[in-house]
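sorry for the late reply, my laptop died twice this morning and i had to redo everyting from scratch. anyway the thing you sent over, i finally got around to it. pasting the sequence first so we're on the same page, its 170 residues, then the predicted structure underneath. double check i copied it right bc i was rushing
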Amino acid sequence: MNKLKKGWWALALLAMVCLAAACGDDDGVMDRPDRTQVRYKLSLGSGWLQLYNVTVDYRTADGQLKTHEMKEDNWEFEDKVDGRYTRFTYRVTANAKRTTFDLNDSTVIALLAKDKELTYTYEFNYYEKENSAHRINPEAKGSIIKAGDVAAYVTAHPQITLLEHDIQVK
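ok and here's the structure:
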């Protein structure tokens, strides 16, 4: 019985050594896939597109600079490419549709009659081989502009940069 016990222990020890050797990493470096991946998301409060033309400038996974004009409150873009690209750009600007308001015009009166939700949230994810995944996802930004202050706010802020990221990975 004693020999049988020793045999089982030796067999268990041999199995653990083989398993450890098989799982070992020779160079200590994790082998990451050679690709670049990028994802952008933007959600605007309901007042932005009523008062401003909002554009998004961004780079695709292979580095092409693109522009998207917002027509809806939500936008998302995701892209992946083989190889490594190291520059990521994400910029959102808002240009006022008008900076003067005719208070005799019924459409203008209706536009200014309600509070405007000039809030936004965004997300920016990118993955590149050397440094793995990165995520930028801040808290909601912006504010709600009271109905009586909308015209003055837009006049004082004809162009707004909501966010700007230009990242060069070394």
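The longest strand covers residues 116-128.
thats about all i looked at so far, will dig more tmrw
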